[in-house]
Amino acid sequence: MANSNHTTRRTVLSLAGGAAVLVIVRPVDATPAMLSAAIRNVVGEANVHTGKVKLDIPPLVENGNTVPMTVSVTGPMTADEYVKSIHVFNDKNPQPNIGNFYLGPRAGRAQISTRIRLADSQKVTAIARLSDDTFWSATADVVVTLAACTEEAI
Q1: Which domain holds residue 61?
Q2: How many domains would you assign to the chain?
């Protein structure tokens, strides 16, 4: 039994008069307000200091679909002093919070490596939360020649 809510390809083509239908879906770009809200969601009202965080990301990438990134934080990783978490943000992707990484004193060192997607040329910010509940950050500009995070369907 056919579902009456199911639209078939034949129905779409008949409604379009037999013409080809092209649907382009583009996610909404993040806004400065979205980025600020995402960061405040992590840090609350605390001040974010510059330093202690090193963000290694290529300044120029050909393809935004797979951008290598490493974030490391200087400081001891002892039972008393350690990095609690690392958060990565961007200012133009549809979702401003790229990822959250949680560490503990037994992590050995405060470093994460991953690949991210970037929708366009933009700033990437890494923020580390230390065990004393201070926040430290680093920012890098990345130029993307072939954007990611866009989807097209035919």
Answers
A1: 27-148
A2: 1
